[in-house]
Each structure stands twice: as C-alpha cells, then as structure tokens.
Q: What sequence folds into this?
C-alpha cells in the first residue's frame, strides 16, 4: 500500500562518499602500511615492552573509570527520573553543560584545580587536612578524575532511558505488596535497569579506551594509554608502519565491544507493555 | 497533600548534589582563573585583572587559531548537515534487511577511537599532499558531525513528519523537490538546527585529528591550547578557554530554546 | 498437591474473609478547591464485591487509589475494622491491588512474583515457597511456576496477578480497571474467572470500572459515581431498575425520560401527571427532600419494561431488529418513546397501537441534584 518513493535511497550517496573517502580509504591505508614489511611491524609492536604496560594501563584506567562513572551516573539518572519537571530541567542543564564543554577545557580546568598551588590543595591546607601540598596532578588518580568527568554524561542517558521505560504501575504493585523504598530499589528498579547499565558501561568503556588528551595533560608519562602509544610511534619514533599495526590491533580489540554495544536493545525491554 | 507516588528519597538528592558540583566545578573556575593578575594560574588568585584577555586578544597567533577554528567548524557543519539530513531522510520509514547495519555505520564515528581515525587521515592526506590544509581538517570534521545531525534529524522526522502527508503530496502530483520543500523541510528544520549546534561544538572542540593534520599556518585553537597546556598553565589559556565556556553556554541555551519552542503534541 | 500442607489462607469455599473497610466522607483535591472526590462514603463488607462505576473523571480511580494508599485524602477517614489507615503508606496497608495490565514483575518468574509479597513480609524461604506453590495450584498454574510473565497468555497473567495479590492474606482486593485494555471476548472470559476466584477464596473486592455490563455481571453492589461523588449505591437490579437520578438512569443502559409534574404521594408511590395530562403512578426516589406538589420532575422507564398493550395510544416511528431484542421507537404522549421487546412480530412504521407499563417500573427521579448531564 505505502510504496516508498524508490528514489529516496539515493540520498545515502553523500554519506557513502564522505565515509568512503575519509573512513574506508584511510582504514585501507592503515592496513596497507601495517603490512608494509610483511608481519614485521606487528612483531615489533607486539614484542615491545611498552605495549604490555600501555595495554595494562588502558584496561585498568578504563575499567576503574567505567565502574566509578556507572555508580555516579546511576545516582544522577535516578535523581533525574524522580525530580519534579522543573528540577529535572535544571539537573539536565547541569549534566549537559560539561557535555558541551571541550574535553581540553575540562582537562585544563582539572589541571588547574589539582596542581600543587591549585584550589583543592589550598582547600586541604585551609581546613588542615595537610600542611604541605599533596601531589594530585600528573598521576593516575588525576587521569581517572578527568576521564570520569568526561564520560559521566554519556553514562547517565542510557540508564535514565531504561528507568523511563519502567511502567509506574510496577512500582505501585510492589508497594501494595509490602515493598519499602530500599526493597523496590534493589529488587525491582535495579534488575529492570540492567539493560541500561550494560549499554552505558560498554559505551563508557569504549570511549575510555580511546582516550588520548587526558593522559597527556593530567597523567604521568607512566600512565600512557594505547592512543598515546600510536601518537608516540607517529610523532616521536616516526614509524608509520608500527603505528598502523598498533591501530589495527586497537580496532580489532574495540570492534567486538562496539558491535555488542550496537546490538543491545536500546529501549528498556521491560515495563510498559 | 503531596502525591505519594514517585516521591524520591531525599537521600537521592543529597547524594547527587556533590556529583553535580563535581560536574560543574571545572566550568565554574575557568573564567575566574582568567581574571587573575599574576602570570601563572594559582589559588587563591593574586588579584583581579583582565590582562590575560588583553594578552590573548593581542596575540595574532592565538587570534588566527581562533578564526581558523570557526572557519573549520563552519564548513564542517554545512557539509555534515547535508550528509546527515540526507541520510536521515533516506532511511526514514524504510524497512529493509541491513537497515540496522547502515544506521550503525552512520553512527560509527561517535565510537571509533579517534586516534585510529587520525592516523588514517594523516596517511591519506600525506599522500594527497594536503597536510596543513584547513579543508582537510574540515572534511574529517564533517564526517564527525554527520552522526549527530543524523540522530537529531531522525528524531524530529519521527516526531513531526506525518507519512500520510508525503503520500498525499505525491498523489497530488508534487515533484520531489517541492515535496522536500513543503513536507520534509518544515519537519526536519528543528532537527537540522540542533544537530548543527551540536556539530559545531564537536568540530570546535576536536583536538586529535586537528593535531595530526596541522600545518604551520593551520593550528586550530584546541591544538594551540593543547600544546600550551603541556608547557604551562597560564591565564592566557584560561582566557581563550573562556571562549569555549561561553560558546558551550550559548549552545546549551540555544538548544533549550529550540526544544522549548517545539510544539507539544 | 500434598493435602497435608497447611495453608495460612482460610480458602474454604464460600467462606467470607476480609475485614470491614469503611470509607468515611473522603474528599480529594490535587489543587486547592478543585475537588475530584467529594464526600465519598461506603463500607466494603467482608466477602462483598463492590464496584465503583462511572465515566472517566468521575473520581472512581482516585477513590480506589486513596483506599490503596497511593493518594492521601484531603479530608476524611479510611478505616479497616475501625482503625484509621488514611495516613499509612501503601506498603504498610494490607490490600492486594491488581492493576490494568497486571503490573507483573517482568524480570521474575511466576513463582518469584507470587513469593514477592511473602518475602517482603519476611516469611521464611521454605514456607514462602510452599505457600506460593499452593496458591499457584489454586489458580491452576502450578505447571507455569518457572515461566516469565511475558510467556503467559492474558488470562494466565491475570491469574498470576490475582494469586500474587491474594497470597499474603490481604484485608481486601482492590482492582483498578484490570480488564480496561482488553477486547470484549477476553474481557467476558476474565470477568468469569475473577468472579470464580473470589467465590472460592471468599475475599472482599473493591472493583473499579467504567463498563456498566461488567459492573452488573460481577457486583454484589454498585456505587455509581459522577463528578467525584457517589450518585447511588445498591445492588445491580436496584440501581438499574430504580435509579435515583437522571445520570444513573442514563449511565446504566438505555432509558426513557418522561417529563412529569408531581401531584402528591399515595402510600409509598408518587402520583404524577404526564405531559399529555395522563395521571399515573411511579416509585418514589430515595432522596432526602421529597418533591412538593406541582414540582416538575422526570420519570425513568426502561424500554424493556414497556409492553405493546395498555392504555396509552402510540404510533410506530421506526423499528430495528438487533438480534437479542428488537428496538421500536413509538410516538406517544407527545414524545418519542423507546420500546424494547423480544417479540418476533414486528410492527411496521405508521402502525397505531397501545403501550403500557406497570406502576412499579416507572421511577420518579430526583432531578434536583444536578449531578450530571447523562440523560439519554
């Protein structure tokens, strides 16, 4: 009955051209460069003592970031969900403002806050927690703070969406059956929001694994992550083959996560029937 | 009496207050930091002065970078709006095997590690002898902008486009171009606008690709800041960062106005 | 099932369980002054099936939600066996609530759904399980214990919802339009099931619906609500045959409203003068203020209580065969009157005939309350 206009699909051509030229072609070049000397570049990269260290850093920092971000995001999502319409708009603006702020600016601000003569150290000394400045900057803690701050809004929305999809009658039913607020939170809301938590966790982990700027600005050289290693091969060693081989390895590691994340049901699968 | 249902535990708001502070703190301190009298950023500030803004505005290199960033973002947004809106219209209300895959591919630039992309673009534009070309940076940014425009146009299409309208327009003999002008354009306009605002922020903030593709005369503002921050934390950087904060606030307000104005159905 | 398992439920057939639920003069306003429930008073007797019937916006759901505890009355008391519970939150009252769509927990098995209220009341695990299994057995779903709710049919879901609401021995069941979203066939089947389970368990039920047929078929008593107040409460036959107000008469099926003037009282009956001057008798309404002689009023006459014999001259205007009955509109006493018969012989339009009715089928209405615009 509703025969779609057959010509509309041609509107995909511009995207196809843009992505073909700027995504497909570059990926092809990366693969080509990575195999420039057979498998030698892969052997180089995989044999590098740096790689193990950098992969450990990346996984550890990304995991901790993901866990902390999920915890904080869950609280924010729940507050958004439960706020009055006006409170929700205010809270939403607070969550979105950092979302709109460049990662560079946020990292710069954190560097200024965490440095030895920064606001946080001054505060610590003023209330007598320490006498001398504590080193807060250029370490793993600073990287994690900066990264959690960056990814937090990304984590809030999938969780918030899964909360919105819960039928309010389910909660009412639980109350009528004798469930108090903690019981409802633990036995009803939490299980029903697991799809949102999973989706948020994967998204945050994927984003975290690709971090480049934050480790440079807030971390120590020993906190180098995989993205920084690519940059190191390009700009310091000037070895494009190894950089390309590492890029291919990163893609192979992240791709399955991206696929799973994309395949997850986007809306809450429970609730409103 | 209060509505019993949906009343949150006060603990929830108590817990979210420090998280909100954590979220806002960096944005809140940028402008005050720029207003220091001293040569270095420190706390408490040495006194209030606008010398950092004067420094920033009198530095031709920084100004050039700022203008370049606007230029790059403008072209990227125009291109990204075209590709993103076209793709959203192409897929609207279509059902075919592989639609999910096509959508995932269009959205991929959001999740693919930027460093991998940046390396690829570097290899590509090195072969094309276009390293240092602002158009190269802008083209890549257009790709990064596309998924955001795509999402917001898709949203406004589902919200505002009545499929019966297209059918009746076509049955009345409307040509594709006038179907677009009278049926699609009014429906996608809010989506294109909010996608453009978001896309502008994406391009204006992007560091990694711009870092790899930079030339002596094509250092975007974020790249210049990135280099400067690694060196030292000066009020001048804070002054230029204030621009970002102001743009972000403007963008947020624009977005809020856009969604607020959308008719409630 | 093991006959030796002792149930905490007194599920003997026909045994009335439950307590007196007294709703006394409750008022509700979400914004000051705008009352959606006005001075509602009724008592749910142990074992009784009481239905709040009314159009949307009549206050029936708000009333139920106040009994359940999801809303707090602006004024008034809700007592269970004399104890005021109006300020207790729902989780500390003891009512089983069944919602539209049933609100089963989608992430839990059928068994876990039914065990849920017991675990909230800290019943030990083993006992919890045996109670839930016995309840499942009782509603005929013992084989479905491990299923998820979405793997059940609509009817099975309803039985799970009822089992879950019954397993913790509530003081009463509260049902909020549970069948509102279903098609007619399924509705009728599920009405029978609810009634059947109630009969077996003996629990008292407060039921909300906007469907008059549903209310008539299930209830012991119906409280017809309009504009936030109870317009009339009584057994279905009483409310149907002897409505007190034009709204009640019109909301419960089709009726003829004949304008009359009140001429006085003769024993329990009213003497009325119809528009064409005919003098007749009608039942007095249950109202506080009796009409005065000469007052204008309305008489309600159900179409199926009118027969094609009697003293009143009529001319057939239209006739329609509707399957179960035939609907004839005649012109009599200067106005159209609907007559519903099961006769197979059908008078052609234009035929002159006579109609009549028994005095007790004419119901004088209280037209002073102004409780609605629901006249036919």
A:
């Amino acid at each position: 009955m509703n025969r779609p206009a057959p010509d509309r699909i041609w509107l995909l051509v511009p995207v196809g051209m843009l992505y073909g030229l700027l995504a497909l072609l570059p990926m092809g070049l990366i693969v080509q460069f990575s195999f420039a000397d057979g498998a030698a570049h892969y052997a180089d990269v995989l044999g590098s003592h740096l790689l193990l260290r950098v992969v450990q850093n990346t996984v550890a920092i990304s995991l901790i970031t993901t866990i902390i971000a999920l915890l904080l995001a869950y609280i924010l999502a729940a507050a958004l969900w439960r706020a009055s319409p006006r409170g929700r708009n205010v809270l939403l603006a607070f969550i979105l403002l950092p979302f709109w702020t460049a990662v560079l600016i946020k990292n710069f601000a954190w560097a200024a806050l965490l440095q030895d003569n920064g606001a946080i150290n001054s505060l610590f000394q003023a209330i007598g927690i320490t006498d001398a400045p504590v080193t807060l900057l250029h370490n793993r803690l600073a990287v994690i703070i900066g990264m959690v701050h960056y990814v937090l809004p990304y984590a809030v929305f999938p969780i918030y969406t899964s909360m919105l999809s819960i039928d309010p009658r389910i909660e009412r039913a639980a109350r009528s059956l004798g469930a108090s607020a903690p019981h409802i939170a633990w036995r009803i809301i939490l299980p029903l929001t697991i799809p949102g938590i999973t989706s948020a966790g994967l998204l945050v982990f994927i984003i975290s694994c690709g971090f480049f700027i934050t480790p440079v600005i807030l971390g120590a050289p020993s906190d180098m992550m995989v993205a920084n290693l690519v940059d190191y091969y390009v700009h310091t060693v000037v070895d494009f083959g190894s950089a390309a081989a590492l890029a291919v390895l990163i893609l192979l590691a992240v791709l399955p996560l991206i696929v799973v994340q994309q395949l997850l049901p986007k809306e809450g699968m429970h609730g409103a029937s | 009496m209060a509505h019993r249902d949906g009343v949150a535990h006060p603990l929830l708001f108590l817990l979210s207050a420090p998280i909100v502070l954590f979220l806002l703190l960096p944005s809140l301190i940028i402008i005050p930091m720029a207003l220091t009298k001293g040569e270095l950023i420190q706390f408490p500030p040495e006194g209030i002065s606008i010398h950092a803004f004067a420094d920033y505005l009198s530095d031709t290199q920084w100004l050039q970078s700022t203008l370049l960033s606007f230029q790059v973002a403008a072209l990227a947004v125009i291109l990204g709006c075209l590709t993103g809106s076209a793709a959203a219209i192409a897929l609207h209300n279509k059902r075919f095997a592989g639609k999910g895959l096509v959508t995932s591919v269009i959205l991929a630039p959001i999740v693919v590690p930027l460093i991998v992309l940046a390396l690829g673009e570097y290899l590509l534009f090195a072969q094309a002898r276009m390293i240092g070309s602002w158009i190269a940076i802008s083209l890549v940014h257009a790709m990064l902008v596309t998924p955001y425009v795509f999402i917001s146009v898709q949203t406004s299409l589902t919200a505002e486009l009545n499929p019966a309208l297209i059918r009746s327009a076509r049955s009345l003999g409307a040509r594709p171009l006038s179907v677009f002008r009278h049926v699609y354009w009014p429906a996608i306009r809010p989506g294109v606008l909010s996608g453009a605002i978001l896309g502008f922020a994406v391009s204006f903030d992007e560091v990694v690709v711009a870092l790899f593709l930079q030339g002596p005369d094509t250092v975007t503002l974020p790249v210049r800041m990135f280099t400067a921050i690694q060196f030292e934390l000066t009020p001048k950087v804070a002054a230029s960062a204030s621009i970002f904060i102001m743009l972000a606030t403007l963008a947020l307000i624009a977005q809020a106005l856009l969604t607020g104005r959308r008719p409630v159905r | 099932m093991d006959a030796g398992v002792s149930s905490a439920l007194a599920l003997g057939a026909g045994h009335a369980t439950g307590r007196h639920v007294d709703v006394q003069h409750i008022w509700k306003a979400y914004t000051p002054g705008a009352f959606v429930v006005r001075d509602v008073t009724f008592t749910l007797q142990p074992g009784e099936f009481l239905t709040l019937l009314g159009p949307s916006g009549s206050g029936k759901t708000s009333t139920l939600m106040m009994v359940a505890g999801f809303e707090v009355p602006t004024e008034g008391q809700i007592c269970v066996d004399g104890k005021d519970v109006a300020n207790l939150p729902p989780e500390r009252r003891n009512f089983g609530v069944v919602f539209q769509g049933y609100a089963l927990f989608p992430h839990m098995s059928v068994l876990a759904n039914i065990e849920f209220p017991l675990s909230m009341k800290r019943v030990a695990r083993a006992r919890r399980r045996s109670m839930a299994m016995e309840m499942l057995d009782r509603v005929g779903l013992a084989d479905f214990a491990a299923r998820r709710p979405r793997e059940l049919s609509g009817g099975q879901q309803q039985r799970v919802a009822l089992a879950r609401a019954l397993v913790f021995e509530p003081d009463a069941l509260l049902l909020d339009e549970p069948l509102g979203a279903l098609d007619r066939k399924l509705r009728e089947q599920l009405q029978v099931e609810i009634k059947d389970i109630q009969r077996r368990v003996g629990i008292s039920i407060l039921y909300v619906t906007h469907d008059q047929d549903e209310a008539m078929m299930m209830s012991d008593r119906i409280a017809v609500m309009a504009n936030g107040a109870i317009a009339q409460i009584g057994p279905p036959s009483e409310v149907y045959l002897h409505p007190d107000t034009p709204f009640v008469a019109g909301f419960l099926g089709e009726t003829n409203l004949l304008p009359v003037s009140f001429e006085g009282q003769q024993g329990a009956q009213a003497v009325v003068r119809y528009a064409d001057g005919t003098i007749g008798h009608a039942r007095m309404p249950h109202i506080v203020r009796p009409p005065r002689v000469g007052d204008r009023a309305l008489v309600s006459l159900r179409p199926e209580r009118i027969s094609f014999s009697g003293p009143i001259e009529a001319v057939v205007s239209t006739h329609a065969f509707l399957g179960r009955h035939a609907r004839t509109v005649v012109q009599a006493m200067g106005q159209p009157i609907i007559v519903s018969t099961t006769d197979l012989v059908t008078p052609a339009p234009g035929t002159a005939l006579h109609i009549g009715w028994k005095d007790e089928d004419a119901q004088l209405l209280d037209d002073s309350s102004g409780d609605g615009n629901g006249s036919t």
